[in-house]
């Protein structure tokens, strides 16, 4: 812990926190640790940083890849996998969409139900 700072979690904006949290819970195998009407927190079974989802009423779906004037993604998740094809199929079965543009052979970019890109990468 450098300078007393510890990253404890990441919040993702969404028009529907409960629905997006349930997508990521299925995808990652994480549990819902806390839920309020406008905020849901997921926790990994082995601890560590959490992933939360909060209501953004003015949410604009990002475009991947973004072009001039498009809503750009503000961040994305990197998820290491052992088998890229199997993990990609699992992500799609959970409700993700395989992005048309794939910049690398050992990475698969997917879009969650709200359009946030996330990367599955072979590690």
From TrEMBL:
Gene3D superfamilies: 2,3-Dihydroxybiphenyl 1,2-Dioxygenase, domain 1. InterPro entries: Glyas_Bleomycin-R_OHBP_Dase, Glyoxalase_6, VOC_core. Signal peptide: none annotated. Residues 6-123 form the VOC domain. SUPFAM superfamilies: Glyoxalase/Bleomycin resistance protein/Dihydroxybiphenyl dioxygenase. Pfam families: Glyoxalase_6. PANTHER family: CONSERVED PROTEIN, HYPOTHETICAL FUSION PROTEIN. This is VOC family protein. It comes from Luedemannella helvata. The lineage of its organism: Bacteria, Bacillati, Actinomycetota, Actinomycetes, Micromonosporales.
């Amino acid at each position: 812990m450098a300078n007393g700072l510890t990253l404890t979690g990441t919040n993702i904006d969404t028009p529907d926190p409960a629905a997006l949290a349930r997508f990521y819970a299925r995808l990652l195998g994480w549990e819902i640790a806390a839920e309020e009407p406008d905020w849901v927190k997921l926790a990994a079974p082995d601890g560590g940083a959490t992933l939360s989802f909060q209501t953004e009423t003015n949410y604009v779906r990002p475009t991947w890849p973004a072009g001039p004037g498009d809503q750009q993604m503000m961040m994305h998740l990197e998820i290491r996998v052992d088998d890229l094809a199997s993990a990609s199929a699992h992500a799609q079965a959970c409700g993700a969409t395989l992005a048309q543009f794939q910049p690398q052979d050992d990475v698969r970019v997917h879009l969650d139900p709200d359009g946030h890109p996330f990367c599955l990468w072979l590690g």
